[in-house]
Automatic annotation (TrEMBL):
This is PSP1 C-terminal domain-containing protein. Residues 115-200 form the PSP1 C-terminal domain. PROSITE patterns: PSP1_C. It comes from Gramella jeungdoensis. Residues 356-389 are annotated as: Disordered.
Length: 389
């Protein structure tokens, strides 16, 4: 979600900082890539990479070939090849970093499918492009009314016009297949332009619309996240999160993508922990796992029938007991292993940083009232003697 102060005006320049999308904070454009190779010159005899990356509405990006060898920089408005006509977008990346991005996205520069850049956009191209963009909001509202009138179970989330205004792309979400043949006929008759319907997922819809997440930051999918991986409820179980759909679901209605960010670290840490469904057999009774703490590296077990009394063990101790149980050997009790952990904690000599010193150690010491009264009496006695003398 780009900042509103730097949105594009009718002349193709941002309204706010006037840096043409190249401000130092890198916040003017959504999903921008910092060109860390811009300060480096090419070796002798090496020709510059003649491909550029162009950004369109809501972060849509494509690679284009600079066949005319135009001098392009980040933020330039260019007219690109489209089918049919031409499209207008903003250059988001140039130079050798485009080669890296194309390799990352598995785009072959030698393939004939890559379109080309016609020219730098003229003032007429920018005016037509801006007029088409001004029509998008009204057309989106009208298209939703037509879809409701035709009783179609779909939601039109966004409309995007091509740069020359010859084609309009309607992005929609639907749970089932939708027969929109009659809808396209009415759209073409109502809007007098070529119509293209494109179905997107709920995650893609949230990425296009943008928003603020429960963490207080902009949505990851609308700022930097480009690949959407499947998220399952097992990711929340491994991280010991409460399975509350309202807290685990994002604005798209699906599970939050951030559940996968630290999942590998949790899985790596859980390798040293025994399975929670394995019971520990002791002479005192059978113990069942009640809780684990991955950060502290501890497990809590309770005897069957004594569910209120929990005993703290480390993963190494639990694995030792399980190994002895496999050999049909029962340990004495869990209390023996719990005492070992307490002795180790005492040896470490850990002290609370707050409780180590008093919070009022920098305050001035308070004088007792008795001392104050004695001092006052002495002063009065001295003054009375001086007066009598």
């Amino acid at each position: 979600m780009a900042c509103s102060s730097c949105s594009t005006g009718k002349d193709g320049q941002p309204k706010g900082c006037k840096n043409n999308g190249t401000c130092g904070t890198d916040g003017c454009n959504k999903l921008t890539v910092f060109d860390w190779l811009s300060n480096m010159s090419l070796p002798g005899g090496v020709e510059p990479f003649n491909f550029v990356e162009v950004r369109f509405k809501n972060g849509r990006k494509h690679f284009y070939k600079n066949t005319e060898n135009l001098s392009l920089s980040i933020g330039d408005i260019v007219a690109t090849e489209a089918n049919p006509g031409h499209d207008v977008g903003m250059v988001s990346l140039t130079g050798e970093l485009v080669r890296v991005q194309m390799k990352k996205k598995k785009e072959d520069p030698d393939s004939g499918e890559i379109l080309k850049i016609y020219r730098k956009a003229s003032q007429k191209d920018i005016d037509v492009w801006q007029e088409a963009r001004d029509r998008e909001e009204k057309i989106k509202q009208r298209s939703r009314q037509i879809a409701i009138r035709l009783n179609l179970s779909m939601k039109i989330s966004d409309v995007e016009f091509q740069g020359d205004g010859s084609k309009a792309t309607f992005y929609y979400t639907a749970e089932d297949r939708v027969d929109f043949r009659q809808l396209i006929k009415e759209f073409a008759r109502e809007f007098n332009t070529r119509i293209e319907m494109r179905q997107i997922g709920l995650r893609q819809e949230a990425a296009r619309l943008g928003g603020i997440g429960s963490c207080g930051r902009e949505l990851c999918c609308s700022t930097w996240l480009t690949d959407f991986r499947s998220v399952s409820t097992s990711a929340a179980r491994y991280q010991q999160l409460s399975l509350n759909p309202q807290k685990l679901a994002g604005q798209c209605g699906k599970l939050k993508c951030c559940l996968n960010y630290e999942l590998d670290t949790y899985l790596e840490a859980l390798k040293s922990f025994p399975k929670t469904d394995v019971k520990l057999k002791t002479k005192k009774g059978t113990a069942v796992c009640q809780k684990i703490d991955i950060f502290k590296g501890l497990l809590w077990y309770a005897y069957e029938g004594e569910w209120m009394n929990w005993h703290k063990l480390s993963p190494e101790q639990a694995n030792k007991i399980i190994a002895r149980n496999k050999k049909d050997e029962a340990v004495g009790s869990l209390e023996e292993y719990e005492l070992e952990i307490q002795m180790e904690d005492d040896k470490k000599g850990f002290k609370d940083a707050v409780g180590e010193d008093s919070l009022t150690r920098f305050d001035k010491p308070k004088q007792h009232r008795k001392r104050r009264n004695k001092k006052r009496k002495k002063r009065k006695g001295n003054t009375s003697k001086s007066k009598n003398a």
